[in-house]
Amino acid sequence: MPIPCLAASTALLTLVLAGGALPPRLRLLRQFSNAAAALRAGPTAWRAAGCTPAQRARLALPDERYLAQALAWLAEEHHHLLGVTDPDYPALLTQIEEPPVALFVDGDPARLWHPAVAVVGSRSPTAGGREHAHAFATALAGEGWSVISGLAAGVDAHAHDGALQVTGGMTVAVVATGLDQTYPPRHAALHERIAATGAVVSEYAPGMPATQAHFPARNRIIAGLSLGTLVIEAAERSGALITARCAAEAGREVFALPGSIRNPRARGCHRLIRQGAALVEAPAEVTAGLAALAQTLAGALRTRLDAPTEQARPAPERAPSYTDPDYQCLWKALDHDPTGMDSLIQRSGLTAAQLSAMLLVMELDGKVMAAYGRYCRKP
Fold first, then answer.
1. Cα–Cα nearest to 80, from 101, 109, 60, 53
2. How far apart are CA 53 and CA 154, in angstroms?
């Protein structure tokens, strides 16, 4: 029997908790536009979409314990759930082969639209590797880029921390557990710092522990949210190389730092360079290599700003209308001297989410300059 009408979040959680292969669940969401309609369609539609017997059983009767945990987590402030058909779901992530059915977000979902560089590498880097991760992340954040990594030990943690050292610096962590826990546990404070100014993201429902299979799956999200991936140090068999491969498969840029031929943690980077990754020695080489891809994100963001629903969206090439009252208000709030986000909110009366999205479009169109979390008109 078809399931009766469910609250949107409960329906989407049911689809997430069905587990198993992603393609059948993605087909259901895309065919029926939302999870509630997909569940009401019933077992015949589920089978036609390719759902296994186990998935169909869980769609009909979700795990009440996990469902209750997830709903309780969502009820808390700054906790969000974005389905793949949600207009706020990050556009870049929809372009990978198997995007998550949904994303759990602790923090600001608008951060997932900001142009980002993934900084990844060894969990046990050399002293030089730690310094490079921190320095590159600090420089990238200072130039207005978001730094994405996996909250793991080693390069990931140093990259997140480097971005957080910048006033207004932005960083996003993609994790392999439910967001009610932290892995490794000693990074709980780092998790909180990232969520306070950026976002911590997972495709796994609250209550889900880390498993070995979750980590390579997590890496495709890191690559998918980023315009490019920078590998600092990586052994020949490394999760960072999975992230780099996912980035290349999604048509994103891959960068690698060379190292000593005597350093086993440099061998993965050297292999990437032989396979076509860009050899970089300075953060400016990373940002220069991403200029063209940034325009792709600008087009997607213009589409999101100009139309709240899928049906109303115009072609991505359409430029934003700077005669729009909100853009005019923002333009008047901007000055020739750098101005922080708090002041812009006060001057314009717009929300932080509105400003973040509009400033990104204006920055990519060459009308605004950003540095260290402050914005000004471009001369």
1. 109
2. 41
Q: pLDDT tens digits, residue range 312-328?
A: 333 333 345 567 788 88
What residue type is 111 in one-letter code? R
Instruction: Tell me the per-residue pLDDT of 33-51, one tens digit each, with 9 for 90 and over.
Output: 899 999 999 999 999 999 9
Sheet of strand 228-231: strand arrangement: 79-83, 102-107, 199-202, 170-174, 146-149, 116-120, 228-231, 253-256, 278-279
pTM as predicted: 0.81
Beta-strand runs (E) in 272-336: 278-279
* Cis amide leading into 184 (omega within 30): yes
- What does the block give as tokens for 30? 């895309």
DSSP SS3 for 32: helix
Q: 231 phi and psi, to 5 degrees?
A: -100, 120
Estimate to the nearest angstrom the gap between the alpha carbon of 143 and the chain centroid. Answer: 18
Helix axes 325-333, 352-364, angle to 10 degrees: 80
Residue whose C-alpha is closest to residue 78's, from 111, 103, 109 = 109
Task: State the residue for tokens 């400033």.
Answer: 359
Q: Tell me, rounded to whole angstroms, the distance of Cα 175 from its chain centroid.
A: 11
- Which distant-in-sequence residues (6+ apart) come within 8 Å of 292 by Cβ? none
* Alpha-carbon gap, residue 101 to 83, rounded angstroms: 6
Rounded to an integer, what distance in angstroms lies between the CA atom of residue 174 and that of residue 215?
10
